[in-house]
Amino acid sequence: MLTVDQLTDAVAEYVRRLEAGTASDIAALYADNATLEDPAGSEVRTGRAAITAFYRELDGLDVTAELLTVRASGDTAAFHMRVVTTAGGFITSIEPIDVMTFGADGLITSMRAIWSPGDIVHRRSTPA
Amino acid sequence: MLTVDQLTDAVAEYVRRLEAGTASDIAALYADNATLEDPAGSEVRTGRAAITAFYRELDGLDVTAELLTVRASGDTAAFHMRVVTTAGGFITSIEPIDVMTFGADGLITSMRAIWSPGDIVHRRSTPA
């Protein structure tokens, strides 16, 4: 079982890679047979190839990610973060609560992102 | 499947009952065979009797509960809240992130509370 500090550090590293890493960098934080459900209730993606493909949607976008709150206990971390992407003249901001479980090796074994369309804000990146 | 509004309302009702309800009032929001794990990684309590017993620890305490952030999607809601209890001259504040799943009938089917001892603040309720 990871400690609270290890879980918290693992979340911080995930947020850093979300901002600065490639899809492969992010997917490398997941266990081989991990599951990803983003948002919760949508298709569950299983395995690192499917997970890499999911994050590839962020490649080429300008992404900033900020950790707002993180909690950890047992094998689980839950965190509220703000992810801002800029593309095509629009800034999109989303602030989900993500829930992750981890294996003893520190790799993510499951991720569920809890958010709905009302949690997304779109705006033009340049004043009209 | 509940809507996002229904999930959000169910969380708000849970927080209200945490503050103003009895253990039975709170447990009535759970499905008969629901599970409760608080904090995540501790013993899983199963069924409404075990869940009622868990909340009975709050009976007789002065409790305030404030919802800070809630997110919902699919069958799941995740929320950050502040729970403050006053007893024996001490005020205890804890701010967990809770994750709940719900059945189509609106009852909670599982709850996991993500927090660690570092997320608890104790202080005297009266100045020395």
Describe the protein in words.
The N and C termini of chain A lie far apart (52 Å). Chain A is globular, with a radius of gyration of 15 Å. The mean pLDDT of chain A is 95. Chain A has three helices and eight strands, in the order ααββαββββββ. In chain A, β1 (30-37) and β2 (45-46) form a beta hairpin. Chain A has one domain (4-113): Roll (Nuclear Transport Factor 2, Chain: A), CATH 3.10.450.50. Helix content of chain A is 23%, strand content 45%. In chain A, strands 1, 2, 3, 4, 5, 6, 7 and 8 form an eight-stranded mixed sheet that branches. Chain A is an alpha+beta fold and 128 residues long. At the A-B interface, β3, β4 and β7 of A face β3, β4 and β7 of B.
Mean pLDDT of chain A: 95
Structural class of chain A: alpha+beta
**Global geometry of chain A:** globular
Q: What is the terminal separation of chain A in angstroms? A: 52 Å
Q: Rg of chain A to the nearest angstrom?
A: 15 Å
Protein name (chains A, B): Steroid delta-isomerase
GO molecular function, one term (chains A, B): steroid Delta-isomerase activity
Pfam families (chains A, B): SnoaL_2
Enzyme class (chains A, B): isomerase
Describe the structure concisely:
2 copies of one chain form a homodimer. In chain A, 23% of the residues lie in helices and 45% in strands.
What keyword list fits this structure?
23% helix; NTF2-like_dom_sf (chains A, B); homodimer; SnoaL-like (chains A, B); alpha+beta; Nuclear Transport Factor 2, Chain: A; 3 helices
